[in-house]
Amino acid sequence: MTETHATIPPGTPVFPPGRYGRRRQPGRRRPLLAALLAVVLVALLGLVALRLYRQYGDPNYQAQVITYTDITDTQVLVNFRVTVPDGGSAVCVLRARDRAGAEVAREEVTVTAPPGERQISTVHHLATSGRPFIGEVLRCRPAS
User: Fold this and answer.
1) What contacts 92, CB < 8 A, 6 or more positions away?
2) pLDDT score of 22 more than 60
3) In the chain, how many domains are there?
4) pLDDT of 142
5) Which keywords accompany this UniProt record (predicted)?
6) Which of 24, 63, 99, 114 has a Cα at 20 to 30 A from 35?
């Protein structure tokens, strides 16, 4: 049966039969598959966020530089305080930079709080490859 002007709604294009292949049937929608993929994606992003938070963003390990003194051509003494969970320990990354901002020393230091204490004050001797201008604590994380 061919289409005639009487069976075609007005405004619909008329194509010659057989010239453009057959028409597609409307596709079956798969909302369950899309929802499942969205849930898996959100779960993966959540796991990545949790891992990065544990690695870089744990608020229980806060470091504060109190002073940096005894600056010579080969050293700086960094006095810093770390807040940890009760009786916990932390690994802190210390560094020294020269006046131009170039890093002249970097070292990881492990500090442990006595039982029942949350703050640790430590003085660390940081050996440098040039004359430092500043000593700083970059970050602290839980000790492994």
Assistant:
1) 63, 80, 82, 108, 109, 110, 111, 137, 138, 139, 140
2) yes
3) 2
4) 85
5) Membrane, Transmembrane, Transmembrane helix
6) 24
